[in-house]
Design brief:
Structural class: alpha+beta
Radius of gyration: 34 Å
Number of helices: 4
Amino acid sequence: MASERNQLDGRDEPMPHDSQTEADIADASLPTDVADEDEKPVRISFIRWIAEMVGLVAVAFLLATAIKTWVVQPFIIPSGSMVPTLEISDRVLVNKFLYRFSDPRPGDIVVFLEPGSDSTDYIKRVIAIDGQTVDINDGKVSVDGVTVPEGYTRGLRTDDGDVAMPYVVPEESVFLMGDNRPNSRDSRWFGAQPTTRVLGKAFAIYWPPSRIRLLR
């Protein structure tokens, strides 16, 4: 700053006579204490800028965490149990607040906690809800005696698992199956799951770009 002031002052003052000594020219510079005072506002402004940036980052982080926890969360599809509806490595968005105000419905694609564990998430389709009776006959699924139209399975056969059929879905629970029936471990093996373990409804694929669409 001091050297910059020297140059500016040199332009404003008359050029020194030849007899003026180098020491006399040096005296035209600003005193050190004045230069330091001019630098203080610059340093204060920089510190304030850093503080504001830290505050903005903190707010953004908290907002993102809140959205992920209570509103919408992205998930990556790890297996082929929902093919062809969901392919391996598809990225989906899951609505996490919807079921705070309503219950899962047949046909919903939901993310839920793995039976017996809270460390892994599963994604399946709701086939039946509490009070309904699920049965499997000749490779087809029926609910309350009515065959379910399942175009999303692309004609794949549905076979029995370890759970005896017909099966009555317990209260506040859902019966879940993957669309890729021959390659899905679901409620045919572990039974219906409590709605309290359902994390949310998958409503859209957002990646890769070629597969962006709403889910039904």
